[in-house]
Specification:
Layout: E1 2-8, H1 10-13, H2 29-37, E2 41-47, H3 66-77, E3 82-86, H4 100-115, E4 127-132, H5 151-155, H6 158-169, E5 172-175, H7 192-210
Parallel strand pairs: 1-2, 1-3, 3-4, 4-5
Helix pairs in contact: 2-7, 3-4, 4-6
């Protein structure tokens, strides 16, 4: 049995773009990944609304900091064959005021935690896949227009910086924006059909990395 940890934010948790709740386990991208991989794979979903790469949120709480929670989860779910991290959207909130390059540094800090851990098979580090979230859609008229002011242009730069970070860290990279788009309803979250596309796209990535 090969174990995969999917570490992310509300788009891993499965938040609906209309704010009405959570998608079911088979609709969320990690659930799609699980269903498509089939027997022999155990997919662990660790999505948290508002999670950042490495930022303490002054309003939502320090527990939203992805760097703080990751070591615990690596130990909890070990031994892991693969860790997939898709974070960075929440770092784009106006309150943090950080450039895309610094968000990539946050992802680099998470990558370092994984690659220096003993959470893999045989006490080694797990394989790692960094996923750049899709760019934020136009914000005008959405509930997040003020909170994410200026974020769409910045979000377009994340994939390039993440690819560079992955190359420097020696891990795999995938640009989610190459296969999916954010919902025009709230500019941030994914529609069910986009979860399906992402989950299916990641099947190939997983099989390439861990068979």
């Amino acid at each position: 049995m090969k174990t995969i940890l999917c570490y992310g934010d509300s788009n891993t948790w499965g938040a609906l773009p209309d704010g009405s709740g959570r998608m079911d386990i088979h609709t969320r991208w990690a659930g799609v990944l699980r269903d498509r991989l089939g027997a022999g794979y155990h997919v662990v979903e660790e999505g948290l609304n508002g999670r950042t790469t490495a930022q303490d949120d002054p309003f939502e709480g320090a527990h939203k900091n992805g760097r703080a929670a990751l070591p615990l989860l690596l130990e909890t779910h070990a031994p892991l064959d693969l860790v997939i991290i898709m974070l960075g959207t929440n770092d784009l909130k106006k309150r943090f005021d950080v450039p895309a390059s610094d968000i990539a540094r946050g992802m680099g800090a998470l990558a370092q935690l994984v690659l220096s851990s003993a959470a893999g098979v045989g006490g080694k580090a797990p394989r790692l896949l960094l996923v750049a979230p899709p760019p934020i859609a136009p914000l005008a008229g959405t509930p997040f227009e003020d909170m994410f002011e200026g974020a769409p242009a910045k979000s377009e730069k994340l994939a390039g910086f993440y690819a560079q970070t992955a190359a420097e860290m020696g891990c795999a990279f995938f640009d989610a924006g190459s296969v999916i788009v954010s919902s025009p309803r709230d500019a941030i979250h994914l529609e069910p059909d986009q979860h399906l596309k992402l989950g299916e796209a990641l099947v190939e990535q997983v099989k390439t990395l861990i068979g």
